[in-house]
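Recall from the previous lesson that a structure prediction takes nothing but the amino acid sequence as input. Here we apply that procedure to phenylalanine--tRNA ligase from Amphora coffeiformis. The sequence below is the only information supplied.
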Amino acid sequence: MFSEYCAQPFTVEPVTVQYEENGSIVSSYVTPTLSTRREKASVDFCNSLIGIQITPQEMKALCDKVQLGPAALLENNTVLEVTVPPTRSDILHPVDIAEDIGVAFGFNNIRKRVPTTSTVGGEFPLNMLGDLLREEIGRAGYIEVLTHGLCSIHDNFTALRRQVSPAVSLSNPANVEYQVVRTTLLPGLLKTLQHNKAASFGSGFKLFEISDVVLPDDKHVITETIVGAKNARRICAVYAGPTSGFEIIHGLVDRIMTLTEVAPTDDYVALNERTKEEQHRVSREGWVYSVEALPDSHPESPTYFPGRAAAIMFQTPKTEKKCIGTFGILHPEVLGNFGIQYPASSVELDLEALM
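The prediction returns the following tokens.
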């Protein structure tokens, strides 16, 4: 303890911290705060997390042993309530209580058991699909980028000419650039273009990213808990150059669908005059897509130039026809918001729908 080196060993001197504004004290508090607090943890949760099976009374005794006492049992001995001293600022969650119980029990005393299941490790299918697409999109001349998962409300909504909608937000962001968790990958790619103005755009500048966005969701349940949000894997690509490059982005959409074995609808094939090519296409039975004009009512429509945007419609034998992404020529106002001096087109679609 450092207090043994004080003028009066093992003593604590309180300090009053005062906040002044316009020459007057607006608030103050005394530190350190030496009061105790009470925290709760489920008995079953602690046993399950540690991998032991002890009685609530034994668990209570272990808490007293590691200075988390006096402890008490509540709700018919199903909930453990401990007393956290002022010196234990690390106790923030029931997991911390379970950890101290494990220390008091002794990790060496936990019986080693053979798992009841036998599994073979492997790459998560969604990650495997993403890795394969990264290689193929890279071969098409696109440069992969990895952008930050946090952004400002302005970049995520206003700069894209979209209405501000619910998003996972930070209660105490470090600065304005980290207000919300992104709901779209597009701002990151546009800011990458913004910071690479010295690069050559003569033959076109192609960027792409395959990563997660976080969407509010009150129905997504994990471990019997409503998280309130869920991750969604997206593909986003941008082309900027002397021309808008709409046909280049359109070609990338068709290439992604070909790689994921999704066939175009008969009407879409007839429209593109590629009937002979489709005879040799490898596709999953009943998995089809088409490209339709993006309606003005779509929330992403303001991002694109009027009349130069499309929706990617997708359908399987088990799902109805739905929009899984959009692409088009970016609106000049959007380009101006990010300081991009060349016309550009972009695409963003849901990768998980193609699994």
